[in-house]
Amino acid sequence: MASKLLRAVVLGPPGSGKGTVCERIARSFGLQHLSSGQFLRESLRGGGGNSGAAGWVLLAPITAAFLPLLTAPFCRGACTGFPRTLGQAEALDRICELDLVISLNIPFETLKDRLSARWVHPASGRVYNMDFNPPHVQGVDDLTGEPLVQREDDKPEAVAARLRKYKDAAKPVIELYKSRGILHSFSGTETNKIWPYVYTLLSSKIPPILSDEEN
User: Do 78 and 10 form a contact (C-beta atoms < 8 A)?
Assistant: First the structure.
């Protein structure tokens, strides 16, 4: 477990590699990875909600239910997928002071290609990319053998609209954290090339438990 309490947020557009970066942070620094997407999936399974409507209906309750996880005594962690809007960032401010914010800047053309090739295992949220991270057997999840699906908003015609919407919503969030001096931006087209810089940043804040090469 990390020797120092640290609370960080990883921001980035859909397909930017936020989840991968957070998983590496968790392994390398003994932190906890809190994913708002995973929280939503588990909440829906437990409550039997309608996933099609939940993305809209549960937006405000997610803020109320998810935020306390960040202030739990055991929570030393990095959060991904939250905050998505200025309103959520302001709600987070009321109960939690962030140590740093990592922003992933990936060219939109790269993101369009990534998202259009992305397929998921609905029950777990595991993500595959048919170009550089395909399943062992085409069309099925590696662990369960269950069918993979392409989300409606990952289909090519929907990707451009998603990215525009993210850009509009994220701009004031990024400006807020930049004004506080806690925003650290990393640009590139490949997570493996961005990661060493993220690792170096985190290493200046808390001691790692794994070397960069071990991750």
Answer: yes
